[in-house]
Amino acid sequence: MENRAILREWFDRVDSQRTGNITATQLKSALAVGNLHFPVSVVQQMIRMYDFDRNGTMSFEEFVQLNKFLLKVQQAFSGLERERGYLVPDEAYEALVKIGFSLDSPAFYTVCESFDQTRTGKLRLDDFISLCIFVQSARNLFNSFDTSKQGRVTLDFNQFVYCASNCRI
Ligand SMILES: [Ca+2]
Q1: Which residue range(s) make up the domain with 99?
Q2: CATH number of the domain within which 38 lies
Q3: Which is nearest to 111 in space by CA: 77, 101, 145?
Q4: Distance from the CA of 70 to the CA of which of 1, 61, 137, 148 falls in 20 to 30 A?
């Protein structure tokens, strides 16, 4: 879905009431039509990541940005899944690096395990997207605290709780 006109058509179909915005519930069912199944919490997180006007829903322009991210994730996934429909953890690691996230082993395996919905060591596209949404949200949040860009932050307990609850999926 690179084409803006196609995106517009898709958006308008989802926004059946023509409000100019789509809600988490609408986005969730629209993605499910494309055989991508996400818990509503993940869809809410997708919206939060690109909800530039902070109204809790997704405008067309916000959706275009989300779609760019999803496309990048999907391409990294497709490049490694070898038509099996899933990635094993090592491949997911490689795909994450392609997207621009390189985590160390403990962080990666912990995050990988928590998004392996079927507990089989196989991440399907929707699992992998959820994982990427989480890592991107964590990155955004981290950057908002790492104002001097040192790659390191100090948090007090309240800030830690704030971060943990913002990233929870
Ligand atoms: Ca919005």
Answers
A1: 4-167
A2: 1.10.238.10
A3: 101
A4: 148
